[in-house]
Specification:
This protein is an all-alpha fold. The chain is 97% helix and 0% strand. The protein has one helix and no strands.
Length: 60
């Protein structure tokens, strides 16, 4: 009986650890995804801004 309870507790601990790892990985990939999107948006806005500056400088 005690052996069975110990085995159940160990398996519950392992499943909790794997759940924690899954949540951590999901959070990490979500944050990495948002950083990539933010970086691409910043590069795009910088390119648009530089293009506008060059066009204004060229036509004036």
């Amino acid at each position: 009986m005690a052996e069975e309870a110990r085995r159940r507790a160990v398996s519950r601990c392992y499943s909790s650890d794997s759940l924690l790892a899954a949540v951590f990985l999901a959070t990490f990939f979500l944050v990495a995804f948002f950083f990539v999107v933010f970086f691409l948006a910043a590069v795009f806005l910088a390119a648009v801004f530089l293009a506008a500056v060059f066009l204004v400088a060229f036509f004036l």
